[in-house]
Design a protein that fits this description.
The structure holds three protein chains of three kinds. Chain B is mainly alpha-helical. Helix content of chain B is about 70%, strand content about 5%. Chain B is elongated and about 75 Å long. The chains are: A alpha/beta, B mainly alpha, C alpha+beta.
C-alpha cells in the first residue's frame, strides 16, 4: 500500500532471550524512509525489545538488521553508538531527561555529543523547543516542568540532530489524553516535515492511528501484513 | 438526532438565515449527509409554532431564504433543558462484532484472526479520522475524537475478548 | 512515652533486616564500613600495649644491669659476647654464651644454654636459614641449630636472633660477665616533647578521618532509607516516629558495625605477625586494645550513629508522598564554620615558642590535641560551603564536564561529606610532613661519608689474627660485584722523647698503604713503593695536638720503635671516603722499617656494583672467612634517628590505609549514585553517548570536589604545620615535595575509585536497564 522505494531499516527473523524467557521469537520489521510505523501488541509481547534490537541498542541473539544497506550486527559497539548518535533519535516513556541539565541543555545534548560547539548546539536546540511549543521552559530543569512539557522536550531532543529514524517507545504512556494527543500531533508533524521515519511502539490504538502502517507483535512474533521479499 | 435542538443551539450564538443554518449544521454535524431544504424549513416552522424561535428580520426580495431567525427566551430554556438531560446509555449489544466473535467461538475458530483483521480495518478508519482531526478546526477535532474513542473501545473490547478466549482455550486444552 | 520510643527504635532496627534485599545490603554495607572504622580505632587503641609489650621483652633480655661493676667469676655467672651482623636490611642480633658454672643465667625464651658449637635461633631466623637465601647467611653462623627461642625472648615475630654456645670467648677483651638477664630500668628513654607532639598529632590525624569515614558509612544508602520512611509515613506514621524509626535503623547497623569491627579486629590480628610496618612487626598477643578506650568505642559509635542520623534528617522532610530535601532552600552559612579554625588557633597560639625542642615533657598535650582537632575539623565544616560556592560558578566545557558540574550544582552535600575525610587526612598529613621535615633536619646527622667514592668499609682489629693487607685486599677484590678495594693499616704511636702531660701524650698517626690507597687519602704527586709522606693535617686521631713529624722522627708503636724515613716528602691533606682528614705519616709497605711493625687495625674501603645481587652479603661472608671478628659497614651520607624513620614510615602507611578506607566510602557513594541513575544511563547510551564521555563525567564529578578539598587541606595543613613549628621554635618552612606527595596519594585514591567504578558504570550502561517496565 505504501510504495516509497526500498526500506531504510530492515530487521528479519529476530530472536532475543533474556534468561529463559524469549522476548523475541522470530520477529521482523521494515521501515521505509519517512514513513511512520506503529509497533503494537499487548504488554510483554516484545514490542520494546523489537525496538531495542532494530535501533541497535541491544544485539539480537540471531537474525539480521540492516540499516541503509549496512549490517548492524557486523558493526562494533563504537560504530553502532555513532550511528545512533547521528542517524537515530529516541523518545522513551519517562526518565529520559538528565535532571541536572536545563531543558535547553538536554535538547542540545545529542548535538554536543557529536561535537557541535555549545553555542551553536543551543541555538539549534532553542529552535526545536520553539517548534514543539515549549520555548518558554528552556531554562527550567526537567523536575520543574509538567509531564507533557517534558515529553515534548524529549521529542525536541530526539529530532534535534535531524535523524532519519526516530524510535519512540510509548511516548505518551505516562500522559493524559490531551497531552498525549498534543505530543503525538507535534511529533508526527515534525517528523513528516523533516522526512524522518518513526518507529512508534504503543499499545494504544488511538496513538497508533497517527502511523501509516502497523506491525503487530504477539508472543515475540510479528504479523507484518506486507513482508519484504 | 434532534435537529431542532441543534438549530436552537446554533441560533443562540447568533441569528441566522435558514440557508446559513443548514450550512453550519452540515459543517459540524453532517458527517457527509447534508440536510435537505425541506427538512430545514419543516423544523424551523415547528420551532416557530412552539414559540422557540422568531423571525428576526426580513430582507427585501423574495423567497423564504430572506428570513432571518433568532432564538426566543423559551428557546434558550429549551436548549438548556436538553443539554442538562443525560442521554440514555446506548449499549450496542446487537453489534455485528459481538455476533462474529460469538459465532467464531461456536464454530471453534480463533478470535485472534478476527481481531487482527478488524484492527487493521479499524485502524484504517482511525487514521482517516486522525488526519481529519489534525487538519480541521476544533469542531472537527471533537467529532473525530468521538469516533476515535468509540473505535478504540471496540478494539479494546475485542482485544480483551481475544485474550480471554485464548486463555480459556489454553485451560481447556490442559 | 519511653514505650513508644522503644517500640519505634525496635521497629526501625527490624526494618534493617526486613527491608528486602536492598535493605539488607544497605545494613550490611554500613556494618562493614563501620566495622572497618571500628577495627582501625581498636588497632589505634592497641598501640600503647603494643609498644609496652615490645619494650618489656626488650628490657627482659637486656643484660646491661650487670655491666656497671665487673663481676667475679662464679657458678652463677655467664660470659657473653655480642655478635651482630646484617642480612640484607635486617640486623641479626646474636650472643655467644659461655657459662662460668652450672648456675649461669639463661636468656628469656630459652630452656637451657646451648653447648659449644650449638645455637638456638628465633623462628624467623630458622625459617630464613632453611630457604635458599639463607645460604648467604649460613657461613656466618657456623653452629648446629638445636632449638628455637620462644616468643618471650623476642621483641617481634620477625626478629633475627640467635644464642650460640662457646668455650673460647672467656678471657677475651670484648666480653661481659653477667649474673642475670633483665633490666627493669632499661629500654628506651621517654619521648622528647617534640616526638610526643608528633605522636599526639599523628593520632589526631589518623583517627579523625576514621571518624569521618564512620560518619559517612552510617549514611550509606540514605536516600533509599528516606524513600522507605516515606512509605511508612503513608501508612500513618508521624514525622517524629519516622525519625525514631530511622534512628533505630542506624542504631541497628552501628551496633552490627561494632560487632563486625570486633570480628575484623579479632581476625585481623591473627595475621598481624606477617605485617611489617617500618621494619617493625608485632606479636598477636601484643595487640590488645586499652579496655577503657574499647568500651568508649563500643558506646560512642552507636550513639554517634543515632546523632548523625537525626542531624541529617533535619535537612530532609519525609512526607507521605516522598522526600523533600531542604538543602537547596538554605544557603550554607560561613560564619560558624570559620569559628572552628579561629578557636583552634586561639588554643594553639599561646603555645608558640613554649614547647621546648629538647628536655622536659609535653605538658599541654590535651590543649595541643584539641587545637589541632579544631583546625582539622574546620576543613570538614568549611568544605561544603566552599564546594557549593565554587561549583555554582562553574559553567562551559564539554559534555562530560557539563554533566558533572550540573550534577554537583544540584547537590554537592554528598560529595562534600565523602571528600571531607580525604581532606582531613591530607591536611593532617601535610602538617605532619612539615613537622617532620623540621624534626628530620634536627635529627639527621651529616656523616661526611662520600658514598660516591666507596660504599663498604670492612675492618679487623689486631686481635683478629695475623692480617696481611695484600691478602685482605685480594680476598675482597675476588668477591663478585666489588669493583675496587684498597686497604690501609692504621698505627698510632707516640714520641718516646716527649713527656706525658696532663692532657695526655701527643699521638702520631702512621698509615700504611699502597700508592693507590694513599692517593685516596692525601694529595700525592707521584708515588712508588718505598716512598713515605708527611701530611700536615688535623688527622683523625690527632685531635689532642698531634705534632707533624719530620724526617728522622722516632715513633714508638707498641713495643716497636720506628723512625720516619729520611726520604719522606710532604703531601697535602685530603679526605678519605669516610670523610676523615688524614694527618701524620703515610708510608708505603716498602718504606724502611714498615715490615717490622706489629699487628694493627686494618681497614678496607670498597667500591661495589650495587646492581650485583647480594653483593653486600658476599662481602660479609668474605670478611667472616678472613676472621669471624671483623666488621663490615655500609657507608651512608646521612644518618637519621632510627625511631624517627620508623614513625615517619608508619605515618605514611597509616595515611595510605586511611585514604584507602575513605576511597571505599567514595566508591560506595559513587556506585549508589550510578545505581540510582541506571535508567538515565541506559537512555544516554541509546542516544549513542560514548562510554568515555560518561567515564570522564564520573571522573570530574569526583575530581572537582577532591581538588577543592585538597586545596583547602593544603591551606589548613600548612596553617597547622606553621603553628606547630612555631610551638617548637623551628622556622616555618613549606615542604612542597612532601605536600605534593601526600596530595599525590590522595589523587591516586581518586583515580583508583574512578577506575573501580568504571566496570559498574559499563555494566549499568548496558541497555538491559531500559527494560525496567
Amino acid at each position: 500500500m505504501n510504495d516509497r522505494g526500498v526500506p531504510l531499516l530492515v530487521g528479519r527473523d529476530l530472536h532475543k532471550s533474556y534468561g529463559p524467557t524469549a522476548a523475541l521469537d522470530g520477529a521482523s520489521i521494515h521501515v521505509r524512509a519517512g514513513e511512520i510505523v506503529a509497533v503494537m501488541g499487548p504488554s510483554g509481547s516484545g514490542k520494546s525489545t523489537l525496538l531495542h534490537c532494530a535501533a541497535g541498542i541491544v544485539p539480537p541473539d540471531s537474525g539480521r538488521i540492516s540499516y541503509d544497506g549496512r549490517e548492524l550486527n557486523a558493526m562494533s559497539d563504537v560504530e553502532r553508538s555513532a550511528l545512533r548518535r547521528r542517524e537515530f533519535g529516541f523518545v522513551f516513556q519517562f526518565g529520559q531527561l538528565v535532571p541536572e541539565l536545563t531543558c535547553l541543555e538536554n535538547v542540545a545534548l545529542p548535538l554536543r555529543l557529536d561535537g557541535v560547539k555549545r553555542r551553536e548546539a543551543e541555538r539549534r536546540a532553542a529552535g526545536w523547543l520553539d517548534r514543539l511549543e515549549v520555548a518558554d521552559i528552556a531554562h527550567q530543569r526537567p523536575g520543574e516542568v509538567s509531564g507533557g512539557q517534558g515529553q515534548r522536550v524529549a521529542v525536541a531532543r530526539a529530532l534535534v540532530n535531524r535523524p532519519r529514524v526516530l524510535f519512540a517507545d510509548e511516548p505518551t504512556g505516562a500522559l493524559d489524553s490531551l497531552n498525549g494527543e498534543r505530543v503525538m500531533r507535534l511529533l508526527t508533524q515534525a517528523a513528516r516535515e523533516s522526512d524522518t521515519a518513526v518507529v512508534l511502539v504503543t499499545h494504544e490504538t488511538r496513538v497508533a492511528a497517527y502511523s501509516d502502517r502497523e506491525v503487530v507483535v504477539r508472543d515475540g512474533r510479528t504479523r507484518d501484513a506486507e513482508l519484504v521479499a | 438526532m434532534s435537529i431542532g435542538q441543534a438549530f436552537l443551539g446554533l441560533l443562540e450564538s447568533q441569528p441566522r438565515h435558514g440557508y446559513d443554518l443548514k450550512r453550519a449544521y452540515d459543517e459540524r454535524f453532517g458527517q457527509g449527509r447534508p440536510l435537505h431544504y425541506g427538512q430545514v424549513y419543516a423544523t424551523l416552522s415547528r420551532l416557530l409554532k412552539n414559540g422557540l424561535v422568531e423571525v428576526d428580520s426580513v430582507e427585501p426580495g423574495d423567497g423564504p431564504e430572506r428570513k432571518r431567525y433568532a432564538i426566543t427566551a423559551a428557546g434558550v430554556t429549551d436548549v438548556e433543558r436538553w443539554l442538562g438531560q443525560p442521554e440514555k446509555p446506548d449499549l450496542h449489544l446487537q453489534n455485528t462484532l459481538y455476533m462474529k466473535v460469538v459465532l467464531a467461538l461456536l464454530t471453534g475458530r480463533g478470535a485472534a484472526d478476527i481481531l487482527d483483521s478488524q484492527r487493521s480495518e479499524h485502524l484504517r478508519l482511525m487514521r482517516e479520522l486522525t488526519r481529519r482531526k489534525t487538519d480541521g478546526d476544533l469542531a472537527d477535532q471533537l467529532i473525530c475524537d468521538y469516533g476515535l474513542f468509540h473505535l478504540e473501545a471496540d478494539l479494546r473490547w475485542l482485544e480483551l475478548t481475544a485474550a480471554r478466549l485464548d486463555d480459556l482455550a489454553g485451560k481447556v486444552r490442559r | 512515652m519511653t514505650g513508644r520510643w522503644t517500640a519505634d527504635l525496635i521497629f526501625g532496627a527490624r526494618l534493617g533486616w526486613a527491608g528486602g534485599r536492598d535493605g539488607w545490603i544497605r545494613t550490611a554495607m554500613t556494618a562493614v564500613g563501620v566495622g572497618l572504622g571500628v577495627a582501625m580505632l581498636l588497632t589505634a587503641a592497641s598501640v600503647p600495649a603494643m609498644f609496652q609489650g615490645r619494650h618489656d621483652r626488650g628490657a627482659a633480655r637486656d643484660f646491661s644491669a650487670s655491666i656497671g661493676a665487673p663481676l667475679a667469676k662464679s657458678d652463677r655467672t655467664l660470659t657473653v659476647r655480642r655478635y651482630e651482623t646484617w642480612f640484607r636490611n635486617s640486623s641479626v642480633y646474636g650472643l655467644e654464651l659461655q657459662p662460668d658454672g652450672p648456675g649461669a643465667p639463661v636468656p628469656p625464651g630459652v630452656d637451657r644454654l646451648p653447648r659449644p658449637g650449638e645455637m638456638v635461633a628465633s623462628p624467623a631466623l630458622a625459617r630464613l636459614l632453611a630457604t635458599p637465601d639463607g645460604a648467604l647467611l649460613a657461613p656466618r653462623l657456623p653452629y648446629r641449630m638445636v632449638g628455637s627461642i620462644g616468643a618471650d625472648g623476642l621483641i617481634g615475630p620477625d626478629e633475627y636472633v640467635f644464642y650460640a654456645g662457646s668455650d673460647r670467648i672467656a678471657g677475651r677483651e670484648d666480653v661481659y660477665r653477667i649474673d642475670r638477664f633483665g633490666n627493669p630500668g632499661g629500654g628506651p628513654e621517654e619521648l622528647s616533647p617534640m616526638l610526643a607532639l608528633l605522636v599526639v598529632i599523628i593520632f589526631v590525624v589518623l583517627l579523625l578521618p576514621i571518624g569521618v569515614f564512620i560518619a559517612a558509612a552510617i549514611r550509606f544508602g540514605d536516600e533509599h532509607r528516606d524513600r522507605r520512611l516515606a512509605a511508612i509515613r503513608l501508612v500513618g506514621a508521624d514525622s517524629r516516629m519516622a525519625r525514631r524509626i530511622a534512628a533505630g535503623e542506624a542504631l541497628n547497623s552501628a551496633v552490627l558495625g561494632v560487632l563486625t569491627g570486633a570480628v575484623f579486629f579479632g581476625v585481623g590480628i591473627q595475621f598481624v605477625e606477617r605485617i611489617t610496618v617500618g621494619g617493625i612487626t608485632v606479636f598477636t598477643s601484643d595487640v590488645s586494645p586499652d579496655p577503657v578506650f574499647a568500651a568508649l568505642v563500643a558506646l560512642a559509635v552507636p550513639a554517634a550513629a543515632v546523632g548523625i542520623t537525626l542531624l541529617a534528617l533535619r535537612r530532609v522532610a519525609i512526607e507521605p508522598l516522598g522526600v523533600v530535601r531542604r538543602a537547596g532552600a538554605t544557603r550554607r552559612r560561613l560564619w560558624w564554620r570559620l569559628m572552628l579554625p579561629v578557636l583552634g588557633l586561639a588554643l594553639l597560639y599561646p603555645l608558640i615558642g613554649q614547647v621546648g625542642a629538647t628536655g622536659g615533657r609535653l605538658a599541654n598535650a590535651y590543649q595541643v590535641a584539641a587545637g589541632a582537632i579544631l583546625l582539622l575539623i574546620s576543613v570538614v565544616a568549611v568544605l561544603p560551603w566552599l564546594i557549593e560556592g565554587v561549583v555554582r560558578r562553574l559553567r562551559g566545557g564539554g559534555v562530560a564536564w557539563q554533566l558533572a558540574t550540573r550534577r554537583l550544582q544540584m547537590g554537592s552535600g554528598t560529595a562534600a561529606r565523602v571528600v571531607s575525610g580525604i581532606a582531613v587526612a591530607v591536611a593532617g598529613g601535610i602538617a605532619l610532613q612539615m613537622l617532620f621535615s623540621a624534626a628530620a633536619a634536627a635529627n639527621t646527622v651529616e656523616t661526611g661519608q662520600d658514598t660516591a667514592r666507596a660504599q663498604v668499609q670492612a675492618g679487623f682489629g689486631p686481635g683478629d689474627g695475623p692480617m696481611d693487607a695484600a691478602t685482605i685486599t685480594a680476598t675482597f677484590r675476588a668477591v663478585p660485584g666489588v669493583r675496587s678495594a684498597f686497604t690501609v693499616t692504621q698505627f698510632y704511636g707516640v714520641d718516646p722523647a716527649a713527656q706525658p702531660s696532663a692532657s695526655g701524650q701527643p699521638v702520631i698517626s702512621v698509615l700504611i698503604g699502597g700508592c693507590g690507597a694513599l692517593a685516596e687519602i692525601a694529595v700525592i704527586d707521584h708515588c712508588a713503593d718505598g716512598d713515605a709522606f708527611v701530611v700536615n693535617g688535623r688527622g683523625e686521631a690527632g685531635a689532642q695536638g698531634a705534632a707533624t713529624p719530620g724526617p728522622g722522627q722516632r715513633v714508638r708503636i707498641g713495643d716497636v720503635e720506628w723512625t720516619v724515613p729520611a726520604a719522606v716528602r710532604p703531601a697535602l691533606p685530603g679526605r678519605d671516603p669516610l670523610g676523615r682528614e688524614a694527618g701524620g705519616v703515610l708510608a708505603t709497605p716498602g718504606a724502611p722499617g714498615v715490615a717490622a711493625l706489629p699487628a694493627a687495625n686494618v681497614q678496607t674501603l670498597m667500591r661495589v656494583d650495587p646492581a650485583v645481587p647480594d653483593v653486600y652479603e658476599h662481602i660479609r661472608n668474605a670478611s667472616f672467612r678472613l676472621s669471624p671478628d671483623g666488621y663490615v659497614n655500609l657507608l651512608q651520607s646521612t644518618r637519621e634517628s632510627d625511631r624517627f624513620t620508623t614513625i615517619r614510615k608508619s605515618l605514611f602507611v597509616g595515611l595510605v590505609i586511611t585514604l584507602l578506607l575513605i576511597g571505599v566510602s567514595l566508591l560506595v557513594s559513587m556506585l549508589e549514585q550510578l545505581q540510582e541513575r541506571r535508567r538515565l544511563l541506559a537512555v544516554l547510551v541509546a542516544f549513542g553517548t560514548r562510554r568515555a564521555t560518561l567515564g570522564w563525567s564520573v571522573l570530574w564529578q569526583t575530581a572537582v570536589p577532591v581538588l577543592l578539598g585538597l586545596g583547602l587541606a593544603a591551606v589548613a595543613g600548612a596553617g597547622l604545620g606553621a603553628v606547630l613549628l612555631g610551638m617548637i621554635g623551628e622556622p616555618v618552612r613549606f615542604d612542597w615535595a612532601s605536600m605534593a606527595g601526600v596530595a599525590g596519594v590522595a589523587a591516586a585514591v581518586v583515580l583508583l575509585v574512578t577506575a573501580l567504578s568504571l566496570p559498574a558504570l559499563w555494566r549499568l550502561m548496558r541497555p538491559e536497564a531500559l527494560r525496567t517496565e
